[in-house]
Design a protein that fits this description.
By secondary structure, the protein is of the alpha/beta class. It has two domains: 213 residues, Periplasmic binding protein-like II (D-Maltodextrin-Binding Protein, domain 2, 3-Layer(aba) Sandwich), CATH 3.40.190.10; 189 residues, D-Maltodextrin-Binding Protein, domain 2 (3-Layer(aba) Sandwich), CATH 3.40.190.10. The chain is 43% helix and 14% strand. The protein contains 18 helices and 13 strands. The strands form three sheets. Strands 1, 2, 3, 6, 12 and 13 form a six-stranded mixed β-sheet that branches. β1, α3 and β2 form a beta-alpha-beta unit. It is globular. The chain starts with 5 loop residues before the first helix and ends with a helix.
Length: 421
């Protein structure tokens, strides 16, 4: 498939850097109900980031006409909006609907700030999509955007795309990628596995997990089961071959990108947000799903993205529900992709990207099928730093894989007991 990255770079996945697109709160960010009371007209207030304004302005007319309503937009960065809802909602100054990252839905739902949502029963989403917006067996949103990790490889250095981790291991035997500053080290393949967002797919592929019952049971932490320990041991084998800089969490991301752009690394794991940097760096890259692990299982990264939710403080839940259904039809999701160049969750639209999109888009859509939803319960916050410490302690030789895993799970369990019970 011919790469058509340039047309997608402007909008392709600002996830991972959502804060950079923030626009602050709009002074007109009153609730739709308040505006309606002043003017006598029915108003739906929709919180979006300003980068989406042209698109939603272009499609709101049909909705307004059908429902005899005025759609007003509040420009606010998504994470900021999610954090503001618990105060703005009860105060009557919050929006009716908003788009937020999946991992923020759980806490807001459990705290009572989100209304339950009905997902249309027309096949526009699959079970993985719906799980992203499900909390305590209730649905609190509609999927909208998807993302996950993929494999980038340099076509000038690799004749065929890697399909197994054995292929990646072979790159490490190529002297062309020897790291001259440190004897015996190689950079043929690199991945920022200190960051658990990146290494989770390795753990999941070996049978490890964060929480039991599909990420909903915080009393069952699976980061020290047999599969997790095996994943830690395999991961450690890679760090034994990589330069010491791969253990510096402050600089490892730049180290990996620079090495790939400079042609000193043939393949890296990254998200769709990495494409712009590699294109700008002049890399003739290909993109594919992450290769199969040595145990024959798929690498299973997080299935991430963003969904639309309804404020529980909205005075017109039915109208808000109608908006969510309207903006997630295939026609509207395809128009969204064509204008904004981000990957929609609608399955029919994803199929179009799989067949006609760029290599980046097609790889993300295909990899998403082997991705796992990130647990969206609040206790997940206790995992990230502790998982990073677990990996560092193991790869640096401070502890064995089993010892590090057991210690980490004990800490996570203690924190959960202290903060959430």
């Amino acid at each position: 498939m011919k790469i058509r990255v340039k047309r997608a770079l402007a909008g392709l996945f600002l996830a991972g850097a959502l804060g950079a697109a923030g626009c602050g709160n709009n002074d007109s960010g009153e609730s739709g109900q308040e505006n309606a009371g002043d003017s006598g007209e029915k108003v739906l207030t929709v919180s979006i980031e300003e980068i989406y304004s042209d698109y939603f302005e272009s499609i709101k007319g049909d909705f307004e006409e059908e429902h005899d309503v005025t759609v007003e937009f509040v420009f606010r960065e998504q994470l900021e909006q999610a954090e503001a809802l618990p105060l703005d909602g009860p105060a009557g100054i919050g929006p009716d609907v908003m788009m937020i990252p999946y991992d923020r839905i759980g806490q807001l739902a459990q705290q009572g700030h989100l209304a339950t949502v009905t997902v249309p029963d027309d096949g526009r989403f699959n079970d993985t999509d719906i799980q992203q917006v499900t909390v305590d067996d209730q649905i609190y949103g509609i999927p909208y955007l998807l993302e996950t990790l993929v494999l980038y490889y340099n076509k000038d250095l690799v004749e065929t795309e890697p399909t197994t981790f054995e292929d990646l291991e072979a790159l490490m035997q190529n002297e062309e990628y020897n790291f001259d500053i440190e004897e015996g080290k190689n950079t043929g393949f690199l991945a920022n596995w200190l960051d658990f967002y990146y290494s989770y797919g390795l753990f999941a592929g070996y049978g490890g997990y964060i929480f039991g019952d599909e990420g909903t049971d915080p009393t069952d932490v699976g980061l020290n089961n047999e599969g997790s320990v095996e994943a830690l041991e395999y991961l450690t084998e890679w760090y034994a071959q990589w330069p010491q800089g791969m253990q510096d969490e402050g600089t490892v991301g730049d180290f990996i990108d620079t090495s790939f752009i400079d042609g000193k690394t043939a393949a890296v794991i990254n998200g769709p947000w990495g494409a712009a940097n590699y294109e700008e760096g002049g890399v003739n890259f290909g993109v594919t799903t992450i290769p199969t692990l040595p145990n024959g299982e798929n690498y299973q990264p997080f299935a991430g993205g963003r969904g639309w939710v309804i404020s529980n403080y909205s005075e017109d839940i039915e109208l808000s529900q109608a908006w969510l259904e309207y903006i997630t039809t295939h026609d509207n999701q395809l128009a969204f992709y064509e204008m904004v160049q981000q990957i929609p969750a609608n399955i029919e639209t994803r199929q179009v990207l799989l067949e006609e999109g760029t290599e980046v888009e097609a790889a993300v859509v295909e990899q998403y099928e082997n991705a796992n939803p990130m647990p969206n319960i609040p206790q997940t916050a206790e995992v990230w730093d502790n998982a990073k410490n677990m990996i560092f302690d193991t790869v640096s030789g401070n502890k064995s894989a089993e010892e590090s895993a057991n210690d980490t799970v004990e800490v996570i369990q203690q924190l959960i007991e202290q903060k959430y019970e």
